[in-house]
Amino acid sequence: MDRVLADILRDQRNLGNKSDGSWKSIAYNNAASALSSQFNVSILGDNVKSRVKIWKKWYGIVHDILSQSGFNWDGTTCMITVDNESAWNDYVKSHPDAKCFRFKVIPNWDDIVDLCAKDRATGHGAETAMDANEHFNVEQNDGKSSEECETDSPSDFQGLEELNIESQNGASPSHCPQKKRGQSTTSSIAPSKRKRMGRNDELAIAMGKIANSFTEFIRTSEKKIDVKEVMDELNMISDFDRQQRLKALKWLTENETQFYVVKNLPLDEKKDYIMMFMP
Length: 279
Known about the structure:
By secondary structure, the protein is mainly α.
């Protein structure tokens, strides 16, 4: 979906819907409409705007990494390369936000450069202090290893991957409220009841709704799973270590049903589901 969004935004830029380094609201709304139609999901302009903010954040961090001697970009693996691990360790001590990107795969990096580089160079579209605080608000994570990424929390990714999926009966949400931490964007459970429910209960309910919506599609679909599409999905889960990511990649590319379930779960439940059911 990221690659399609990038193409749509380039078209919007060519139409003049980006001026003075800033995207116009019509660009976000047109992109949301095109994605909703193409992928048969419900996307709002705010979802697209959030995704672009994430790209700008990634670009700023990775650009600064690559400006240092000994750090380069591998266009084949879509990852940064490090000539000297000691130099990298020294760098992340003073730039902790970079730690997460040591083994992060960014398949659409060329698109991000194309769409975000000029903005940063001219200062247009830069994050305000309030934006930065919002994007770097990290959850407490019990038992998290110091080797795990602590840069991106699930709240960083309240964008295209957290969508209200329309049910097969044609019902469409009238609005898409900002998701509060720990709540599912697809759940219709009253807040008081949700508080009494455990995480596994919420996950089971979300899975049931997704299963009802996609059972027919999964049964009739003959399309093979695109490995890059699976990688894009896993890249949304920022606190996977390398071994977990590779294991999940193999499992999801071999299990079409599991991949479509993971793809349509809220972002903060994707890892829980994978770790619960992955062999």
